[in-house]
Each structure stands twice: as structure tokens, then as C-alpha cells.
Amino acid sequence: MTVWTRPALWWRCAIALSAFLGIYLSNSSLVYFTLQSNVLVVGYFLGAAYWMVKRGTVDAPAPRLRGAVVLYITITGIVAHVLLNHGENPLPGLVSGPDRLQHWSSFFLHYTTPLMVLADWLVLSPRNASRWRDLPLWLSYPLGYAFLTEARAIAFPDFPLRYPYFFLDPTEKGYGWVGLQMIQLTLEFVVLAALVVALDRLGTKLRRTPAAPAEA
Predict the structure, then answer these.
(1) Among 86, 109, 67, which Cα is nearest to 195's?
(2) Tens digits of per-residue pLDDT, 42-62?
């Protein structure tokens, strides 16, 4: 069986396509973490597909980078569904209303792509490749994004979309409130990053075949 006939290759191409469609249909800016994380998904999984074909392997490359991408797109999905959409069902907007293209974009960016990436992380190889020591490195990007947003808003007050997300906006409640939001999100991101590592280990156990019974 060649790599071209392996489901893993086409699954990873489908992930890149899902993220690309979300970006293409969106009218949002790259200032948003959502767009940035989906750009990372497109880049990583297209690179993974190229690697798989070139090396004739089903293993995705750069496990530490893969884990980081999994974490960032999972953050995108959870924050959007819980904090921004307040847990609302995303499906009705796909079939009715004047903004169906934006609903489809949001669906690809916040739901389809994160779930596909998580499935890839849980089921496909390489397994058990992440380490607990990777967590600080993974978390540096979303935390850096938040601090850069605040610094940019102070340094460039006329910058469009100074605060892409309400929990980064100190206009009404002040920087103390924003700081508390960041502490809470940091703790949640630490738990989420630990869960990403745990899912990697769980995927190893799910794929492990039971030993054959010994002959009498």
C-alpha cells in the first residue's frame, strides 16, 4: 500500500481544505487569533501531506509543532463556542439568514477544523510524541498574542480593531479586569494543553493491539 492510498494523507489534506475554506470565506482580519490559528493549520497540514508523500510515511512531521497547532486550534474552537457564541447551536445559520457565507466561514474555522485536528491527534501517528515539558513553549504563543494586543493598543491608539476580543478590552472595566480574565484564561489553557498531551497518550493506548493468547 502506497502513501497515496493511505486514509491519513487524505484526511490531513481535508483538514487543510477545511481551514482554507474558513479563511477564504471570512471577512475578518488576521488580527484575530482565530484566523492566525487556522493559517497555522493550513501551513502545518499541507507541509505534513508533502512530508508524507516525499518520505512515503503515514507519520506527521515535527510532533512538537503538531501539538502546538492542536492546542491553538482547540483554543479557537472552545473560546468561540463558549465565550463568543455563548454555546449557541451553529447549525441554523448555515441554511438561513443573510450572512450564510460568514456562518459557513465560522463553522469551518471554529467547529469543523478543530474537531478534525483533534481526531487526527487522537487517532493518527506519530503517537506518544508530546512531552509535558512542551507546555510552556506551546503556551507562549497565545499568551504572547494577548500581551502584544495590549501593547499595540497602547502604542498605536488609532490601530483598527485595537481589541479583537472583549476580554482583552479595558475600555469599560479597566486593566485589572483584563488581568483577571488573562489569569483565568491562562489557567484554562494550561489545563487544555495538559489535556492535549493526555489525548496523545490515550491515542497510543487506543491503537495498542492486545497480545495474542499463548498457546497451551
Answers:
(1) 67
(2) 999 999 999 999 999 999 999
Instruction: Return the axis-axis angle of helices 174-207 and 63-79, rounded to nearest 10°.
Output: 130
8 A C-beta contact, residue 41 and residue 113: yes
For residue 205, what pLDDT is reported? 59
Where on the phi/psi map is residue 109: left (φ > 0), alpha (ψ -120 to 50), or beta?
alpha
| Residue 131 neighbours by CB under 8 Å, 6+ apart | 64, 197
What confidence tens digit (pLDDT) does each residue in 122-162 have? 999 898 888 999 999 999 999 999 999 999 999 999 998 99
Q: Could you write out the DSSP letters of every residue in 80-94?
A: IIIIISTT--SSGGG
| Angle between helices 7-25 and 33-55 in degrees, nearest 10 | 150
